[in-house]
Amino acid sequence: MDDLETVCYISLSSSSTSPELFGDARARLKTDLVSVDGSDLEKDSRFKKTKEQVKDLIESPGKQSQLTYSQTGTEFQKKVWDYLVYSTKPGSVLSYSDIADGLELPRTSSRAIGTAVGANKLAIIVPCHRILRRDGNLGGYRWGIDLKKKILALEGYSVK
């Protein structure tokens, strides 16, 4: 955590944080993350609060997140991620074209938006699972289509 009290990195792993939800995503996370010694973090009240917020979000993704996040990316990627975080609600879905419209970009930006979404490494916090193909199909998901279905269902979206 930095001085601004934003989440820079957090990892939760216990039997009470829905490990079955993430399943085989651990292998993917190992390639995305670098371990750091966080032994002193458990004593930090800000960390404890953030840890509880993330745990709550994982266990109840239907709630709107109140977390502040920070993720390395281009300005365009950050713009797309912020749109997903601050302009979508649990249980709702949208397409890349919808994001382009919301960001007042040409619809030809859909491919670039898809690339930005694919670079997101903060599952659930940046809710890229809410993006469907324009034809209503689920499309892809960095952590696997089965996890995408589970998260959408937990948020109250009727997965077809």
Helix-strand category: mainly alpha
Q: How many helices?
A: 7
CATH architecture assignment name of the domain at 75-155: Orthogonal Bundle
Q: How many β-strands, per DSSP?
A: 0
CATH H-level superfamily of the domain at 75-155: Winged helix-like DNA-binding domain superfamily/Winged helix DNA-binding domain
**Spans of 5+ residues with little confidence (pLDDT < 50)?**
11-21, 32-36
Organism: Trichomonascus ciferrii
Family: Belongs to the MGMT family.
GO molecular function: methylated-DNA-[protein]-cysteine S-methyltransferase activity
Pfam families: DNA_binding_1
Question: Could you characterize what this model shows?
Answer:
With 160 residues, the protein is mainly alpha-helical. The chain has a domain at 75-155: Winged helix-like DNA-binding domain superfamily/Winged helix DNA-binding domain (Arc Repressor Mutant, subunit A), CATH 1.10.10. It contains seven helices and no strands. α5 packs across α6 (110-118). The longest helix is centred in the first third of the chain and has 15 residues, at 45-59. It catalyses: a 4-O-methyl-thymidine in DNA + L-cysteinyl-[protein] = a thymidine in DNA + S-methyl-L-cysteinyl-[protein]; a 6-O-methyl-2'-deoxyguanosine in DNA + L-cysteinyl-[protein] = S-methyl-L-cysteinyl-[protein] + a 2'-deoxyguanosine in DNA. Its EC number is 2.1.1.63.
